[in-house]
Model the fold of this input.
Amino acid sequence: MQDNCFGVWKMNEEILKIIREKGLLLEKEVFDLVSGISDVKGARDFLERVERFTGQKIITRAILGNNSELLEKTTGLLGEGKSVEILIKLGLRVEIKKERPAEGPVMKLAEECGVKYQVFYADTKPDKKLEVGDFVGNFKARYHQLQRILMQRSDLPNLLTINKISKDRQQLSIIGMVKEKRVTKNKNLILTLEDFTGEINILVKGDREEVFAAAQELQLDDVIAAKGSGNRDIMFTSNIYFPDAFVHEKARLDKDVCVAFISDIHCGSDRHLKKSMEKFLAWINSEDETARKISFIFFVGDNVDGVGIFPGQEKVLELKSMKEQYKLLASYLRRVPKRITMFMCPGQHDASRVAEPQPIIDRNYAPEIYELENLVLVTNPSLIKLSDGQKDFKILMYHGASIHTFINEIPELREMKAHKTPAKAVKHMLKRRHLSPTHSSAIYIPNSEKDPLVIQEVPDVLCTGEVHRLDIENYNGILIITGSCWQAQTPFEEKVGNIPNPGKLPVLNLKTRELKIYDFLDEEEVNKEYGK
Done:
């Protein structure tokens, strides 16, 4: 009897830990329901599924009652006794079908192609009053994460913390975060680096071209390693190292399947290209050989145009409410063949808070897309692993709010007007192993345990949206794809000189790694309706 009570107590403690980790609030009756699940993994799976399906952090009896179809899909997690009784007490009508296996919230088999997928994304805790300590904790967590990556290098002799640097000149290496950057009257650069123990100035001479170029592109809050000579007063730098990302062997799956990438559909905008989207939908349902091989589609944010995103937006909206916009989006997604699994993350225009990591799209504004069985809603950013036996293919999807800051702040990108070649900016995310390194380069929610914008695991593909231009780059074995758009040039884009490249669909074969670009732009639609 005592052992049984201890087991129940321990189970409840584990469930409370999961609830705290995920930032959830559960009504007592719902907590009793979760306590009836037979194991901790099942409880976690159930909570993750409820959160994803409802888009809510506060889980009440009423929410479950309004989403009984969710419970029908998850009854495989429930024990035969207590949990079923609790369901009945809650007044929920649930038909338990033992022949239907429970679907895992993270790993699932795409039945048509035989490829499994796993979704990894950061916890998106409910809003709370933020304090300075939260941001300090986020930067500490980031420093530790990137420090561990940099410490794997073998070319950092005599690696010291800053407080261990003596008064005597010596050869040394340090890892630090860029606090300040300034140019001297002799056109040299002085960087102030800090770690947990102190800070130090390092000098980069202008005649050291390679090192000086690396120092020029450094941004505030970058975490780097520096090698050189000096003492506690100043260090003369011979090399600068970024955390950097490498794929030493390009991943390939055995199965002959393809993935496609779409971003910035902007449903509801008066510049949304409906005819171009219709051409794509006709093709994806055709007998075209490549179309038939597509098993996954990644929708990388700004799926609708939104409401109140910028001043005067109502003047350029065809559909004036979010619900109407998502209803149009759902009408497109329903026509995608059911054999195709779709992943969709939000962007700044979607029904989700703007601060990153962004939660999944809010169910209240987009109820129709929650009805689609082959649509998986994910956060921004998210890492998707596609698995074929022992082989994994990793795709990191990030809408890309920070791209503009990279272009504006890095001289090389600014001078080449990299908005025309945005993949060159995305390359710097991989170089820094961070999606948005400089404070204020994108709005974010700090996390004191683990910075969710650190690229902890190197992907095989990094796909983004945001800039409305298709661009492709290969960086250290990693494929970068910045998405096209399905919107004609807006008045704002015309004002700032951004020329979109709409209607393009990149399709990647995961067996051969062949990349094809399909053009679905209806020129007549653009020329006639928008005067181009």
